[in-house]
Amino acid sequence: MNAILRQTGHVRALAILVVTAVLSACSGGQTPPSGQASPALPGQGAPAAGGADQINGAGATFPYPIYSKWFSEYTKSHPDVRINYQSIGSGGGIRQLTAQTVFFGATDGPMTDEQLKSAPGPIVHLPTVLGAVVPVYNLPDVTGDLKFSGPLLADIYLGKVKKWNDPAIVKENAGVKLPASDIAVAHRSDGSGTTYIFVDYLSKVSPEFKQKVGVATSVNWPVGVGGKGNEGVAGVVKQTPGSIGYVELIYALQNNIAFGAVKNKAGAYLKASLESVTAAAAASAASMPADFRVSITDADGKDAYPISSYTWLLLYESPTDKAKGKKMVEFVRWAITDGEAYAKDLGYAALPDSVVKLEQDALGKIEVQ
Amino acid sequence: MTFLCALSVVVALIPLAFILFFVLHQGVPALNWAFFTEMPRPVGETGGGMANAIVGTGILIGLAALVAVPIGVTCGVYITEFKTSRLSPAVRFAADILNGVPSIVIGVFAYAIAVLPFRRFSALAGGVALGVMMIPIIVRTTEELLALVPSSLREGALALGATRARAVATVILPAALPGIVTGVLVALARVAGETAPLLFTAFNNRFFSTSLDQPIGSLTVQIFTYAISPYEDWHRQAWAGATVLIAAVLLFSLLARAVTRRLERMHHG
Amino acid sequence: MALSPTGRRRAGWADPLFRVGTGAVAVLVIAIVVGILAVLVNDSMLSVRKFGLSFWRTRVWDPVAGDFGALPFIWGTLYSSVLALLIAMPVALGIAIFLSELCPRWMRQPLAFLTELLAAIPSIVYGLWGIFVLAPAVRTLQVHTPDALRGTPFFSGPPLGVGMLAAALILAVMVIPFTATVAREILKAVPVSQREAAYALGATRWEAIRLAVHYGRIGILGAVMLGFGRALGETMAVTMVIGNNPQVALSLFAPQHTMAAVIANEFTEAADALYLNALVEIGLVLFLITVVINGLSRFLIWRMVRVRPARVVAPVKVPLAA
Lengths: 369, 269, 322
Description:
The complex is a heterotrimer of chains A (369), B (269) and C (322). Chain A is an alpha/beta fold and 369 residues long. Helix content of chain A is 41%, strand content 17%.
């Protein structure tokens, strides 16, 4: 029996470990296990346990760089507001918000009428920044930027243009030596607002694309490799010579991936930039609809970058947790005023002033009292 | 033919060992104090660490053990003590099926029962998912070990007037305990490395959190998120995370082995 | 009947309570399995009703049009797993034979330990290695494929690195240690009497090994099928190297998709009910396939273990001492 007891030394050690882990977990959490939100505790200070103060959100990878910067900066000045955002794609943001497993969502493809109808309550779209989707490619031997037209991009993604030295590409890029290799096409494997923006544009410039593929956050791609998130597509393009993909501008800039110029409606070839994206928004700013759901791809104007878009935060008009709702509303107010200063460094364009004003009014309508 | 067999060892084990060394080679230089103590930094900033993810994995497997050990051991006890009942083969069959269910399907199941009804991703849901995966391993281990206990011990206890429950609790289980602990350790090592079921139960959390009803970070999900990104610094941290994970699995395996060896010596010595 | 220390007959509620109590927990385990099936069936009803049996043979996966079919995923899962097994089987068997028969005693423990450790490495680590080492290596291989082969349907397509070949290789790598360990256990279970009998009749070492393998062939088949079952359900490592493109393609270089990978990628974001139901239905298909395969393999192993030694001695032509 003593021998057996000696063996159980291991057991006791393990038991102590497990019990300690669980006890520390229970004591660490401030929220009572029933899940009811307890009244917010005054400024708890940084690495303390998570709890009722944490606001969970999910959605688009398109604005993830600026959002993660915002949430980090905002917590510095408001330590009692901790926003946990997971970039799982716009489709995910819409779905989890509708299922109410997260408090707010984020998307670059506005919710459709059916999606809004199937939500348990009215949802408000709140634009935050403007961004651009750029065609990235990996051609180590090509110097200088490639030029693409909308229909050409559509044909590449339809699988009709298969090689880099196809006459269609050569036509747009006179004087550039293009290799005879196959084009390795990359797209999103998850439900994505970036996809939405891209296919929205392609469907506007190519009736065949519109008919064969269509517009949504998740489409039936005729060709190509799927990467998860903007990060995934950027990763695929970076690792695969001869590939082409589409990502938000900042992902191309931060990873030093070459991206091309796109021909806009007025016929000018433009690379995405703060100026060209702002110009794209300016045209429609005056006629912004009340629910902020608008598409600005293929905009008019010779300075407008054709694959630009707003990106939105999604909130319930009357959230169940009023305290959290109030915190989010305050955050959004900060974001569209002070927060816009960070946008520039990360390659996002600030909202037009007229839009900011409309949004402040809309924020007032969210029921947080 | 000996040559072929030796060749297969060379062809297979050596490259597999190479994978192990490659991961360590990439990961060990990336380990630093910051990795173990800091939270992830926003996109674009280098540095930061996986402190929250490491703690998260610890909490998740602790929860899983809490769910799986009582259920698994009790179930194993039932199968052994009441071998002849009609329920026994059915339970054993069910445990075998459960063992083969792909982890992603367990994730879907846990999402349906532990996330949707409560409208939140949580560490508890993740613990439930991992616990369900651990149950069949523990059932099987318990069953095998209880069968190894000499029947003389059981008969002796019953002859002395103990109830069945008492006999099991005070005599039979303690005799089998080291082996059961081994089984638990092996099961813990297995679920510590799971990613798929956590994707939609525990979700992820960039803050340090220990509350059970909030999303929680985990080493595996964090490695996955970093691995598919384009940022070099995140890749570096992914390797470091993988190294920590392997170290944990190695630790559990060695511990399990040590316990088994002492058990063998005890029975044969 | 239990007696208390005073000799009185104790009320007999303790034992029945014990039985009921532990029995309830046992029923709980059964309930969990039934629950999984129930959740899968319930949450896929919309899709099952809309597509019926044609779901299993439709190639289209179109969330925009609301048209879903599981064929590309079933294809990808089976193709990658079968390929992985073809690669892994001889290697795993070779390792098992080496470890149980040929290995010098001093090497046995460390090698066995190494094999078990490799079986325990989490799949995310293999996936990490897959993205950064395997896929680029496969890509280099693709670039250097001779044009003659390029024309065949098995090797066509742009050199992406990620694709069916990378997925099959990583699955093989993951399945080998596990299958080798189980096969080794099977070989260890071959009664010593069998081998001694063979040697007594003058068999060479290799003939004795062949005999042992033949004796355990059913169990070894079971081990292989267990490995197959593992490969079918593997999620993370595969999704990181297979390319995530739902197409039915013969080419080893083409990016494809598997059932587990599509669920992992699209589950959190299927924004409408039909899409979600279609994904859960794929989970149901995966569940059913793995249950069948695992059930079959366990049955085979069980059969081998319970069969009496005398019955299965194969009529191996053992030559008299030469």
